[in-house]
Fold these 2 entries.
Entry 1:
Amino acid sequence: MSLLNKFDRTSPAVLGQDLHKFATCLYPICRSITGDGIRQTLAIIQKRIPLQTIAVPTGTQVFDWIVPKEWNIQDAYVADSSGKRVVDFRKCNLHVMNYSVPVHATLPVSDLRPHLFTIPEHPDWIPYRTSYYKEEWGFCLSHNEMLTLHDQEEYEICIDSTLADGYLNYGECYLPGQTTDEILISCHACHPSLANDNLSGLAVATALAEFLSTCDLRYSYRFLFIPGTIGAITWLAQNKEKVRNIRGGLVLTCLGDAGGFHYKKSRQGGSEIDKAAAHVLKIEGRFAEILEFSPYGYDERQYCSPGFDLPIGCLMRSVWGSFPEYHTSADNLDFIRPLQLAGSLRVCAAVLDVIENNRSYRNENPYCEPQLGRRGLFRSMGGEAGGRASGEEMMARLWVLNLSDGINSLLDIAERSGISFPRIKDAADLLFKEQLLSLIP
Amino acid sequence: MSLLNKFDRTSPAVLGQDLHKFATCLYPICRSITGDGIRQTLAIIQKRIPLQTIAVPTGTQVFDWIVPKEWNIQDAYVADSSGKRVVDFRKCNLHVMNYSVPVHATLPVSDLRPHLFTIPEHPDWIPYRTSYYKEEWGFCLSHNEMLTLHDQEEYEICIDSTLADGYLNYGECYLPGQTTDEILISCHACHPSLANDNLSGLAVATALAEFLSTCDLRYSYRFLFIPGTIGAITWLAQNKEKVRNIRGGLVLTCLGDAGGFHYKKSRQGGSEIDKAAAHVLKIEGRFAEILEFSPYGYDERQYCSPGFDLPIGCLMRSVWGSFPEYHTSADNLDFIRPLQLAGSLRVCAAVLDVIENNRSYRNENPYCEPQLGRRGLFRSMGGEAGGRASGEEMMARLWVLNLSDGINSLLDIAERSGISFPRIKDAADLLFKEQLLSLIP
Amino acid sequence: MSLLNKFDRTSPAVLGQDLHKFATCLYPICRSITGDGIRQTLAIIQKRIPLQTIAVPTGTQVFDWIVPKEWNIQDAYVADSSGKRVVDFRKCNLHVMNYSVPVHATLPVSDLRPHLFTIPEHPDWIPYRTSYYKEEWGFCLSHNEMLTLHDQEEYEICIDSTLADGYLNYGECYLPGQTTDEILISCHACHPSLANDNLSGLAVATALAEFLSTCDLRYSYRFLFIPGTIGAITWLAQNKEKVRNIRGGLVLTCLGDAGGFHYKKSRQGGSEIDKAAAHVLKIEGRFAEILEFSPYGYDERQYCSPGFDLPIGCLMRSVWGSFPEYHTSADNLDFIRPLQLAGSLRVCAAVLDVIENNRSYRNENPYCEPQLGRRGLFRSMGGEAGGRASGEEMMARLWVLNLSDGINSLLDIAERSGISFPRIKDAADLLFKEQLLSLIP
């Protein structure tokens, strides 16, 4: 079935509003790689899609890593001598370095400074910092806020957090298709109040799962909502038998900003998902760019580690780290836009539409062209009066007939002809109906 | 033997005049895919080359197609109420839609209009229209002529044509060579008074066959003069055993206009004929362009259908459809030029010269260079006094020696060295005479 | 071991002075492909490196060639009627066409002219001419000098040379490494007072051998100092069993001028030395260019003849023949520069550093990334506090881990990542020490 035909029944504006509203609802939660924040987040996602949540205890060995202690935080502040909070976690959860160990003390500014993080070149923005694997504490604040601290003054600092044995949580949504071969869609769910990285990915992935659950699917789909790095490693370590079914996949993130699309290829580089994404972006995406694989980035790092070498790429609009708002308080709900979110969801659907419908056919009349005119399927580009197909529809039919030798897939034909996959697929459907093609099983 | 050496004994001006004269002689005939016009055309070609003519009866099944009824036409006109012919087939055979069924009636203009075809953007030109496979009738006229028709007036229309059982005719000229492996040269012969498409192809193909018939040939050559589409399909359907011998070929058309050369690759893309044509056009043709295969165009569509997948490309100057005169009365004898026709014939000869002479050799002194100086074959590029070869002749010898490992062909060597094929061939001939090379059988 | 670390302990200025001094010492000698000049040259090289000298008698058959008679020269001049030498070999050994047969006569200018060689477009420069394989005599002089000869006058000409049975001499320096697989470094040693072509090559090759002799080497190295063409042919003919050990090599010449680097690929084109040289030049060399193989040039012509097809390329700065000073008296000691010579030596060391250290490893934790943070090897590009590695060091580690699948070599990883080979090698060393990698034997 055509995912796109079905998808395009909803208006982008309506879709976009829905996606942005969902991100807005998740925005205030103080997420981290473990703890209550990610559990609350999974619970909200679970309201929309059939999500199984998994809890892996602290201390579990996952390949070379160990599931860390669970981190939770109630409150945190820096207060001046009058007791006034000059830095206040309750106002913005980015103010605390994520995974900070508890601390409560009164310190002169000079002792405090090594624990303060700012962005001098953007003096109004609060940076986002973490220290997951090294026991540290710190505050993040705007550079202007820091300038108001008095050298002579002592400040009360408090981080009311806990770091204790607990669980690493993640969510998994499995949509069964006609085969157990599956497509993996993965996004991290561990960033606090940051919108493009990573709420845009959560919103798009949730909506995509919701949409696919209404479709009659060829492949099975697995959606992972996981803490970055340790979550992907944990899932891979505990699901080796599922890994064998993975035919391809996408890591989704940074999908709400105003930038053009970027698809970062899998380590394999030439897999079906790589070709499908490149094809869709060439047709759909103005300013779209295909990036070579590199071993840094999001969880494609783990999926594409040499032992797995899965055909999983990463779809983004602006690339992480390339926009100044990245990992700062400026990556907020204004930075992501409804129509951009909707457009990202559509590109995901278009890529999966290729994967779902990429079949190979055999031309049943391989000697010369079949007489399309007799079947009402011909439109001359010269002076011959004929059917009502557009020039491109006509060309799509001729390309499908010419290249359907049982080896070329429809995606191969779309690439070689320069015609969009949906149009090639329509041509194949029509020719199949006319018994001019047979399907290669 | 070198085809080019032999070819170049005639002056391009003389050749060009001859080619243009031949096209002029064919121009007035009202050709179609069947009927007297194509038979007259074949008879004229037969005066110059040994042409076998074949007649295939109406109703013969050829793959998915059926040989259509034969069409002939005596006269056609649109006359006003005074009996004056305002559209007159006797003045220009494009005035009747080719394959129009007979009609004789008197009609108001409003009923006539759906059967009238013009080109508003070129108001003086008459379009060329056909309706081979749908029984229709129509008149083609200049837009200015149409504007003179009076809305209130009734017009007498007459198409004195017949559509009846008969034959599809085509011509075949076979020139035997040392092997039964053959090269196919195909051109359509079904267009009425249109010069570039397709009289230029008929003239060049006839002259090429005439020229090759005087040469001692390695390969056998088969020239086909056939109605477009149905003719190629008919030939392929009835000559499957001959198809097995085809090593390569060219479809010839649009070879007389002022444009640069275009070679459209075969579906295989990397066959010997594709490489030979690309090499020749790179060396010979300023502004030449190599086009990828596409399943639309001339009869390469049939030869390159997936069941045959023959290495047959298409040589043109301007590409069909890319010049405004295409399929109009402006594609006339002024549109094709003697020197352009002669240049096209020379390019054909140059491509076939590559095919005829593309051998592989083995260097009999593969360890280090042989001492060319001792044999009078060396010319230093530095300060060494030596023989009288030009720098490029010298380099051609070194390239042939270096790459003649039994695998590289002379065309491979020409491509890698960037030296023209004839020069590489001359070097190989010289080195072979000196027993420095042996021929790979 | 890293050749470059060791190499970089000497200052380029000091190195450059040493190289230029060595060239200066060799400059005055009148070398040819045989005779005292090349023997003196080898004796000077022998003072610096362990050089074995080999003498092959005149008349020895070497493949298609025969070792020629030995040429020696004492004096030569053209004197006017007053006995004044107007052309004097004692002032510049280029004045005599190299390999001139003895002659002593008094001739009118008209009889002399066919034996005089000048460069009209550079009227102050003396050309360099040879006639090794055809018994001839001649004088080379500046065009201005020639213009002073009087048409009416007779001149005494004298070439006091001998051409007699003797020897062809060459030098061979073998540096044994851990394996008998060897790298061949070859340079011609047959040009008289010409600095860039070829003293720069002799100086760089000698210094390179001297440097490598202090290193603990993986491969064995063989340096050849040989007469051009006939020397390479002689060595190949008499050392077929050594040829089998050659894994790669470089022909060195024209390494002292101010131009950017050029590496001419071996006939194979994609061998390890070709990739190593291309990688080094991309990283090191501004304005560096990679040239395709061609069967003309220096002794790579022989090494890359089809019977041997050795992976031996040619490293130059300016390409022979592309600079006006080539093969003239203007290719003198001012034309080559100390810093350029030192830079050339460094590029050689860098290429061999790649060859020496190009290993393949296997990631021992191929499933997901190993936890580098725990080992102090991680530096986040995002907000994670971590180790002290630079961004590129960090990326080098991730690339090595990701691509170390036992197939990719470190050079492959350097190429795919765009990170310099030494940095990739450092990362591999570190990861190997941490037991994250195992070496593929």
Entry 2:
Amino acid sequence: MLVRTLSTLECTKLLTANRIGHLACARDGQPYIVPLYYAHADNHLYAFSILGRKIDWMRANPLVSVQVDEHGPGRGWKSAIVEGRYEELPDTVGHKVQRDHAWAMLSKHADWWEPGALKPDTFPVSDHLPHVFFRILIGQVSGREAVQS
Amino acid sequence: MLVRTLSTLECTKLLTANRIGHLACARDGQPYIVPLYYAHADNHLYAFSILGRKIDWMRANPLVSVQVDEHGPGRGWKSAIVEGRYEELPDTVGHKVQRDHAWAMLSKHADWWEPGALKPDTFPVSDHLPHVFFRILIGQVSGREAVQS
């Protein structure tokens, strides 16, 4: 296996081509990592979630990291790591355009809402659950690719 | 999809059955997330890496999070999240048993060393690279399962 650094453009393509990644946030030095369904557009990763630890922590400390990987062919892989900043898109005047954009991005995918929308022992997404739309502003992105030599 | 909480035993089984996960560490409030090849034994996740940002950060702040997921059947999934503590297994007297144990755990798998062992534009694992063996002491583990209803 030979490993090389991905260019920023290659990292961006990897982010655009995928919609499942992993998000890490941190509070008082303790990281917390969860799967993330997202849509990439305009230097942001758009996502949503119901209220919970992840949102609480990102509201307190907006610094996050998102990692996306892709496998194959063979044993090859690509990985991109984003350092970014949490930005909430609240349901208030002034954010309608951004929320509509997030919704348009995310609703292109049939099952985008599942992990973010579900809490244990409850039924699927309901209008009564308080959803938080947010986006991650991509600050830095770096990546690597391993190719079978 | 119906989502339920996994028991500690179910989380432990998920950790044992897999060997690829994602690790997050943090420095000065900035999380950093990378793929992790690990082996689970004795309430620890064993792994290794060459020197770099991940090791630097975990040496400075040993609080980490590891997440492991498993997909299928259908659109179902399981996910376990560990809150843990980084423990280095240095190559000094007193750690030989732990290092040998780590090696035994990890070397059961043919390609366990790949992402940890490679830096861009270098060739595969060499005795000349300074490898760091470490383990994550599992402090807390929690998990969820989504089942197609």
